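SUBJECT: protein chain
CONTENTS: sequence, structure tokens:
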Amino acid sequence: MNKVRWGIIGCGDVTEVKSGPAFQKVEDSELVAVMRRTAHLAEDYAKRHNVPKWYDDADKLINDPEVDVVYIATPPGSHMEYTIKAAQAGKPVYVEKPMARNAGECKKMIAACKEAGVPLFVAYYRRAQPRFLKVKELLENKAIGDIRFVLTNQFQQVSENIVNSNDVPWRLQPEISGGGLFFDLASHTLDILDYLIGPIKSVKGFASNQAGFYTAEDIVTATYLFESSVHGTGNWCFSAFEKTDTNEIIGSKGKITFSTFEHDPVILTTSNGTEKWSFDPIQHVHQPLVETIVGELTGKAIECPSTSVSATRTNWVMDEMVKE
């Protein structure tokens, strides 16, 4: 494949800035078709983003001979269906996170792509961003010695739109999203920890709905053990009085502090003092990861760091955390 021609299924909000423009900006890549069930919205997106084709039928986009790779940007409830269809059409797939509603669906997606002989990539784009690569570099260089444990605290208030509305957003409907905001947001943190520290092999968690504004969980606390014997503890609450987004990796000689969603600096603290690294926000947050996908598909660069195997691990961890 000399040039990657992309088609998007589900050209909604996430594709406006975060992902869609990246397909046009990356070398050897172009966006040639988009799909949305509401025809006039698909047409509007195509016109605004200079995309030559638009559809209101996913099957037509998947089977378009000018579409080489399918990007699935729909809610998780349809990820498995569209992935299997794209694989059966012989098309590589790039699917939004979380990869599916649960690890069982992820495994079926992997099996379908393996049978078809096509790669399956997942949009955990932080794996390719400079801020998180800096954390990985510090860890690999033993800046904090041997890693002992990691602490995550991510809290936010309940949105007024949820409190004052009878309509529950799809992200809070488990039949569509897999769970509540935990599945949507904590998946990013758990995946980047998998990338930085390695796979988690054992998990114990508790999930509840304390505020009662919807049925999905709004608080999850968990402890976990990585294959490397590093310990981890995480607290996620979506009905707290303040917003918090911190991760601390503590080692034998220091600690690294960073956030998942905010643009706070990466902070290294050791007996020698404190060092900080700041990074400019990335306009199209998918772009660094898309570059790795295009590079892999064209044979011009290293492999994409976000695979279906690693993304399935993240789904499995979340499944385990909300079992009780």
Notes: The CA atoms of residues 172 and 299 lie 40 Å apart. The chain has a mean pLDDT of 97.
